[in-house]
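Today's session is about reading a structure prediction critically. Students often jump straight to the picture, but the first step is always the sequence itself: look for stretches that repeat, for charged clusters, for runs of hydrophobic residues. Only then move on to the predicted structure, which in these notes is written as discrete structure tokens rather than atom positions. Here is the chain we will use throughout the hour.
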Amino acid sequence: MEFHPQPGPGRATPWAFPAPERSRLDNGLTVLRCHRPGQQVIAVEVSLDAPLEAEPTGLDGVATIMARAFSEGTDKLSAEDFTAELERCGATLDAHADHPAVRVSLEVPASRLDKALGLLADALRAPAFPDNEVERLVNNRLDEIPHELANPARRAAMALAAEIFPADSRLSRPRQGTEETVARIDAAAVRAFYEAHVRPATATVVVVGDFTGIDLDEVLGTSLGAWTGASAETRPVPAVSTDDTGRVVIVDRPGAVQTQLLIGRVGPDRHERVWPAQVLGTYCLGGTLTSRLDRVLREEKGYTYGVRAFGQVLRSAPPSSTGAGTGMLAISGSVDTPNTGPALEDLWTVLRTLAAEGLTEAERDVAVQNLVGVAPLKYETAAAVAGTLADQVEQFLPDDFQARMYERLAETGTVEATAAAVNAFPVDRMVTVLVGDAAEITEPVKALGIGPVTVIPA
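Below is the predicted structure for this chain, in token form.
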């Protein structure tokens, strides 16, 4: 019997992160466009210079309520009619607030882009912010808060932020506000925040998709180009003091069968030269199922279903600013209560071994293959490309940052990646937050000597 020869692999197609074209509308709105042939669902991201630190004192969460209220009607349409028009376009509209900005996202078939952009423009130009809808959104948010506090991972994140950043810093408090602050928000507060911070001159729109047969300049000009507002300078980024002295905080959950771990400290943003090496070293430490932390805590010891190490940017400062960007480096996961002490001991052993012995060439090679090789799949959709470009805008990065990032990852050596990972997770400069049964885990944790231990109520 004759078999056909087994087909061999084809030649890899060169790939690079898409480069956008940058322009500006007459109203001052910055536009980044990226033509992606074949992407018939067009993604639009609007970044508004309304960071959380701009929220008035005592009204934490007003940016979130404003973001959610953009889809609750305009000067032309009621909330119900606005939603119906979006559905007729086959479009989805979402918005959220974060430390750098308020982000409004739209996805729509290319054939209905002009109609959907008109709805988006109306939502930004003349949102209704009706009293009853804002009140409903506030009540919804108040209903969410108890569920977030009951979630161990969310509770750990809140506790870590409160430990690392001073109380007067917006970075130290929940992004979407607390029960006390959200309860104070009304339609007048939302309108005031909108009028103070939302204008085209300080906003950026990113449009990604297949523009074949679309006059994008005309479509943008007749929709978002009709949005008017006063000019304003980009807000300065104030300096923030931090405290990542090694210590342990236990958020007491009596009877908890698991302990949620969140071990973190402040770190650099993407402007720092160390960022690519830090990404690579952190991935080797805890970025995947084959990382060191998972190999020990999950595969060898069976303490957990998974532990991850990661770095994230909380906010960045423009190059001309006197402020500085702020990032977070963290290790997260959960372990069963009786093994909390042993799991932490083994985790610290992994960190000490990394400092003493370094990463291997094999670990580095696998990490580069995974991080760089997955990029074409990661950015298959227009939404993924648009989201990354909007992130770059909010972090004051050049338009080619992501493309250069993959080049720099491929060039980073084992020694450089090891040094970055060791500096990112020093054993004596980590704040450890444990959400679990304090009666069961306090003494074993104290015995580890990784810092003073404080117990706080859930």
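Discussion point for the tutorial: Residues 247-457 form a domain with the Cytochrome Bc1 Complex; Chain A, domain 1 fold (CATH 3.30.830.10).
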